[in-house]
Structures are given as structure tokens and as C-alpha cells.
């Protein structure tokens, strides 16, 4: 049997019976896994297109129950348009936080790769340790510190901590080692560019795919962020989607009207991430296989 | 928050890649160091660049990591006592290790640890073995539409944890779940939120989110195995299964153990899923897992000392585990592990 990916057919002729059996089993296992991944999402999609009655009856294929637009209208109207506010907040926290955070991490990773300075080793060790520290350990002291500074229950209490992405620094250092040749920086130096300018005009440009990868990971992390906003925020006006949906979900067992809202709300909330991943998959893959290009 | 997300993302890159970047930095030609003066001290403009580029991150490291961690450690040794009716006049007293004793002798904390360990014991072998099988299948060349399958398998990872939980919670809920409808037509009665099924139901949510993602990591590591090794085994007459078990799996042992430890750290932080389930079943109490215990102690009972002590305990366990990662990675680095993605592609 062959283990190369490109030429599965070249050896297929030599012993067809057991080989095609193995192939069948292999494809069946993968096929079942794909269905396992897909079916819950398919249910969410179907459930969001029907009215409440059909939702509870799991009757998805009768066109007379089609209520996708009504569901969206109900979602947007609930609690004076809270859902849209939460959506906007999530976009602000995730896109803003990831854009700035990824830049901060990329710059730091670049410095770790390209420069020697005092305390470099212990500092990097500290960064690696901080990757592993659970969010709950930090949440309470962060909340107390934010309260002292009068920042608790503000945008900043959620936005500033998510900028910190030590794993991004680690990734950026790796990307910098494989994407930015020292010769190019040396050439820039000879041309008289100072270090800061060569980072922004040369280094950052070559690190662009790495930046996108870090941005993607951070975007997902912030969009999913639940613990920090749960601790920091009281004001529903500041809630991100995760916290808003959580509060609705708590109401659903008492008031079944919230189930259809949760279904359509969840679908729309996961859409940007899935779309971002599918569109930017190339970057994400290039991140995983960094170095194979050269 | 960043830390837990980092843990999840941290597993995304096969661990051997840590070492090459480090060794590459060390073995880099003198050209890289040329901006240094002969004395070995960085030139002034370079120091400025280091300060400006690294400064923002260092500030964040201090403000949202180092200071909070030290603050949590400090809090764990103090207790806040109220005179009068509990409002105003609060003063903190040093209590030594009393908070730690209180946490460790609290039955609800111990029970939470037990629950989490049980969950981890079921979840970790399942997700690792499942992902490894899938990755080996993808690497075997037998799979049709490999790229597409990988993409679809990965999609659940892009679904926020809270939404993944909501989807599965509804699929577990009688009256709304089509799964239960189908099962009851076949005369099968399952209570997914019942006592026996609760842990499996939680495991299923995590497995759904993590399976494809972990498989993709393992697959990337498998691709980094030098092609000659696999071909040599085939020339020697080893079949696909034997090649997988005797060559491929041992070659990615490093990635396997790193991912195992990262998965363990993430599993110990179980929070979002049981938080949501606690609204649907009385079996999930407010202190169901250590993380929920911390949240409950801090924000329901307002016992900051107790919450901090529990946090520090969790921190110690995670640090011990991550120490194993860094030690393992360093050991492999010395042996010269293959660079991820530099092998077959």
C-alpha cells in the first residue's frame, strides 16, 4: 500500500482486493467524522429557517414553516436591539483587539529573533510560561486591579487584557526566523535605514502572512472570550455576543420563546469566524507549514 | 481570555518547530550580529528599536500578566474580615496557608477536581487516538477529497465554545432535539443530561470542537517525517498499517506528547460548557469544576482569599505540566528534531 499522496494509483493494481477494502474502510471512517463535524451545524442552519412550532417538532422541510426572515426580525427586535449592540461590541473587541494585539506580538517576536539584548532569555522563558497560565487565575486580580483604577465595567477592561498574546510572540519569532532573511535587513542597514524603519518597511512586509495567522488565532480567541467579559462587565450595553447569548440561554429553559432566538443568534454569531477561516485558510495553512516554501 | 485561548492555539504548531527557531537564532551567521559594536554591546539606535518594538508587549506582560499573578499569590495568603455588618471597615489579615487548607479540605472543591479528572480521563485518550487515526488516514493517500475533508473537520474549531455548547445542549434537550426524536422512535430512551450521561455529554462537546483541529496538527507533523524513511519501510515490504505504527507514530512522538499536555491543561480549565449546562440540569452545580469553584468563590461568595488560593493551586498544576512541555521540547531540540513542514509537502 502506498503512503505517498500524489501517486495512490500507481501501485493500486498489484493487489486490488484487500487494498480496495482498506480504502473503503479508511474513507468510511473519514466520512463519518466529516458527518459528525457537519451535522450539528446543519441542524443549526435548518433550525434557524423555521418558525418556533416547527423547531420544536423538528419539521424542517415544509416550506410553509419557512420563517428565516421573521426569525432575524425577531432577533433584532428583542430587548430593543440588544443583539446588534452585542454584535458591534464583539466586532470592536475582536477585530480591534486582534489587529493591535497581533501587531504588538509581531514586533516583539521580530525583536526576539533579530536582536540580542540583556535579559532576552529569561524574558522569553517568562513569555512561554505565560502561555500556560489559566484565564481564571488572572481574572480575579485583573478585576480587582481594574476596579481600583475605575476601569471595571468599561470597554477597556475587556479590550486591554486581550491584547496580550504571548503565543503570538512565540509564533512571530518562528515566522521571523523563516520569512525574514538577515541579508535583507543587512542590505537595509547598508542603505542607511534605521532599525525601526527597516522593521516597518522590510520586516513587517515579509512577516505579513505571519501577521495574518496571528491575527486569525487572536480574532477567534477574543470572539470566543467568555470568562473575562463575564467577570468584568455588568452593563449589558457592553456585552460581547458570547455573554449576551449566555444571558439569553439562562432564560430559555424558563421562557421557551428564547430558543428560536438562541438558534438564529448562534448561527449569525458563528458566521464571521467560519467565513474568516474558510477565506483565510491559505494563510493559516502557510503558518502551519512555515518554511516549506524556501 | 488570552491565556486559555493561547493554550488552545498553542497546540496548533507541532512542538518541534520551537527548537529550530531557537537553534536557528543561535547558529545564525555573524552577519546577524553585525550591528553590534565590537565590544558586544548593542549600538544606541538598536537599543532604541528594541525598546520601541518590544516596549508595548513588555508593558502588557507586566500589566495583565505579571502583576495580576503576583497579586493573586498575595491575596491567597490574606483573608478579608468584616467588622460590624460586613459593610465598610473591612480589613485584611495575614492568614498564612489557611486559605489553601480551606480549599483542599472543602468537599465541593475535591469533588470538582474528581469530576474534572474523570472528564479528562475520558476526553484526552479519545481525542488523541481519534485525531491520530484521522491524521494517519489522511497521510496514507487513501482518502478521497482529503483537503475538503480536512477543512470540514476543522470548521467546528472555528465555532465559539459557547455556541458549540448551545448547539449540543439543544441536541440533548427533549422537545427540541431531532436526535432524541429519532432515538425515541427506535424505542431508545437516553437522558443526555442525566447522571450517567453527563460526563460523556460534556466530552462529546469538547471532542466535536477539538477532533479535526488536533488531527490537522498531527497531520502537519506526519508530513514533516523525512520521506526516505517511509519509503525505506515500504521497500522492506511493510504495509500501510505497519509503516504507520512502526515508523510514523514513533516519529511524531514529540508532537503527540506536547499536544497531550496542552490538551490536559485545557481540559483542567473546564468552565464554559458546564456553566451553560448548569442552567439546564440541576446535576451541574455552581462548583462543578475547579474553575467554576474559583468563579463562585470570587464573585458569588466574594471570598477573594479562597478564590486566589484555588487559582494558585490550579496555576501550580498548569506550571508543572508546562514545565514538562518545555523540558521535553528542549530535549528534542538537542537531538535535532525535524522542522515542521520542511519534509514532504
Topology:
The complex is a heterodimer of chains A (294) and B (345).
Chain A (H helix, E strand, L loop, with lengths): L15 H32 L4 H6 L10 H10 L4 H33 L5 H13 L2 H14 L6 H9 L2 H14 L2 H9 L4 H12 L1 H17 L2 H6 L8 H11 L6 H22 L1 H8 L6
Helix pairs in contact in A: 1-14, 3-14, 4-7, 4-8, 4-11, 5-8, 8-11, 9-10, 11-15, 13-14
Chain B lengths: L1 H9 L7 H10 L2 H4 L10 H32 L2 E5 L7 E5 L3 H7 L2 H34 L5 H13 L2 H12 L5 H8 L12 H26 L3 H9 L4 H12 L1 H16 L3 H6 L12 H11 L3 H32 L10
Antiparallel strand pairs in B: 1-2
What would you note in describing this structure?
The complex is a heterodimer of chains A (294) and B (345). With 294 residues, chain A is an all-alpha fold. Chain A has one domain: MetI-like (MetI-like fold), CATH 1.10.3720.10. Chain A has 15 helices and no strands. Chain A has helices spanning 16-47, 52-57, 68-77, 82-114, 120-132, 135-148, 155-163, 166-179, 182-190, 195-206, 208-224, 227-232, 241-251, 258-279, 281-288. Residues 1-16 and 290-294 of chain A have low confidence and may be disordered. In chain B, a hairpin with a 7-residue loop joins strand 1 (78-82) and strand 2 (90-94). In chain B, helix 13 (253-268) packs antiparallel against helix 16. The longest helix of chain B is centred in the middle third of the chain and has 34 residues, at 107-140. Chains A and B meet through helix 1, helix 4, helix 5, helix 6 and helix 7 of A and helix 1, helix 2, helix 3, helix 4 and helix 6 of B.
Amino acid at each position: 500500500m502506498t503512503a505517498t499522496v500524489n501517486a495512490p494509483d500507481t501501485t493500486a493494481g498489484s493487489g486490488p482486493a484487500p487494498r480496495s477494502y482498506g480504502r473503503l474502510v479508511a474513507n468510511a471512517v473519514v466520512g463519518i467524522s466529516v458527518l459528525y463535524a457537519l451535522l450539528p451545524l446543519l441542524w443549526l442552519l435548518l433550525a434557524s429557517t423555521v418558525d418556533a412550532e416547527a423547531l420544536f417538532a423538528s419539521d424542517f422541510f415544509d416550506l410553509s414553516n419557512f420563517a428565516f426572515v421573521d426569525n432575524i426580525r425577531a432577533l433584532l427586535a428583542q430587548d430593543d436591539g440588544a443583539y446588534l449592540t452585542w454584535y458591534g461590541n464583539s466586532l470592536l473587541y475582536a477585530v480591534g483587539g486582534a489587529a493591535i494585539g497581533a501587531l504588538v506580538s509581531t514586533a516583539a517576536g521580530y525583536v526576539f529573533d533579530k536582536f540580542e539584548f540583556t535579559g532576552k532569555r529569561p524574558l522569553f522563558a517568562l513569555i512561554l510560561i505565560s502561555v500556560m497560565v489559566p484565564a481564571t487565575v488572572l481574572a480575579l486580580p485583573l478585576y480587582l486591579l481594574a476596579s481600583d483604577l475605575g476601569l471595571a465595567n468599561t470597554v477597556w477592561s475587556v479590550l486591554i487584557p486581550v491584547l496580550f498574546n504571548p503565543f503570538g510572540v512565540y509564533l512571530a519569532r518562528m515566522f521571523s526566523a523563516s520569512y525574514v532573511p538577515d541579508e535583507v535587513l543587512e542590505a537595509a542597514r547598508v542603505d542607511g535605514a534605521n532599525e525601526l524603519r527597516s522593521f516597518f518597511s522590510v520586516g513587517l512586509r515579509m512577516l505579513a502572512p505571519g501577521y495574518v495567522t496571528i491575527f486569525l488565532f487572536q480574532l477567534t480567541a477574543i470572539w470566543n472570550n467568555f470568562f473575562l467579559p463575564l467577570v468584568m462587565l455588568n452593563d449589558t450595553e457592553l456585552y460581547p455576543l458570547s455573554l449576551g447569548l449566555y444571558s439569553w440561554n439562562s432564560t430559555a429553559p424558563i421562557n421557551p420563546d428564547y430558543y428560536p432566538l438562541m438558534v438564529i443568534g448562534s448561527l449569525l454569531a458563528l458566521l464571521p469566524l467560519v467565513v474568516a477561516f474558510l477565506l483565510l485558510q491559505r494563510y493559516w495553512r502557510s503558518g502551519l507549514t512555515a518554511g516549506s516554501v524556501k | 481570555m488570552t491565556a486559555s485561548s493561547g493554550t488552545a492555539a498553542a497546540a496548533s504548531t507541532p512542538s518541534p518547530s520551537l527548537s529550530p527557531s531557537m537553534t536557528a537564532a543561535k547558529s545564525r551567521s555573524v552577519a546577524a550580529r553585525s550591528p553590534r559594536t565590537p565590544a558586544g554591546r548593542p549600538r544606541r539606535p538598536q537599543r532604541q528599536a528594541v525598546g520601541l518594538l518590544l516596549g508595548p508587549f513588555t508593558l502588557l506582560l507586566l500589566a495583565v500578566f505579571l502583576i495580576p499573578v503576583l497579586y493573586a499569590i498575595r491575596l491567597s495568603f490574606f483573608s478579608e474580615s468584616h467588622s460590624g455588618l460586613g459593610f465598610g471597615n473591612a480589613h485584611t489579615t495575614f492568614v498564612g496557608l489557611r486559605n489553601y487548607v480551606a480549599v483542599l479540605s472543602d468537599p465541593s472543591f475535591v469533588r470538582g477536581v474528581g469530576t474534572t479528572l474523570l472528564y479528562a480521563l475520558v476526553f484526552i485518550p479519545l481525542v488523541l487516538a481519534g485525531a491520530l487515526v484521522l491524521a494517519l488516514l489522511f497521510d496514507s493517500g487513501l482518502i478521497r477529497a482529503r483537503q475538503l475533508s480536512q477543512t470540514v473537520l476543522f470548521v467546528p474549531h472555528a465555532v465559539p465554545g459557547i455556541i458549540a455548547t448551545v448547539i449540543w445542549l439543544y441536541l440533548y434537550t427533549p422537545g427540541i432535539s431531532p436526535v432524541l426524536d429519532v432515538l425515541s422512535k427506535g424505542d431508545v430512551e437516553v437522558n443526555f443530561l442525566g447522571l450517567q450521561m453527563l460526563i460523556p455529554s460534556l466530552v462529546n462537546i469538547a471532542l466535536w470542537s477539538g477532533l479535526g483541529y488536533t488531527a490537522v496538527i498531527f497531520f502537519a507533523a506526519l508530513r514533516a517525517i523525512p520521506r526516505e524513511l517511509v519509503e525505506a519501510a515500504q521497500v522492506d515490504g511493510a504495509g500501510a498499517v505497519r509503516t504507520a505504527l512502526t515508523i510514523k507514530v514513533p516519529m511524531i512522538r514529540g508532537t503527540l506528547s506536547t499536544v497531550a499536555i496542552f490538551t490536559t491543561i485545557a481540559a483542567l480549565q473546564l468552565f464554559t460548557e458546564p456553566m451553560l449546562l448548569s442552567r439546564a440540569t440541576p446535576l451541574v452545580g455552581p462548583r462543578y469544576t475547579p474553575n467554576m469553584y474559583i468563579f463562585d468563590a470570587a464573585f458569588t461568595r466574594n471570598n477573594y482569599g479562597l478564590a486566589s488560593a484555588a487559582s494558585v493551586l490550579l496555576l501550580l498544576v498548569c506550571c508543572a505540566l508546562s514545565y514538562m512541555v518545555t523540558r521535553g521540547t528542549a530535549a528534542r531540540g538537542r537531538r535535532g528534531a525535524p522542522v515542521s513542514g520542511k519534509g514532504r509537502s
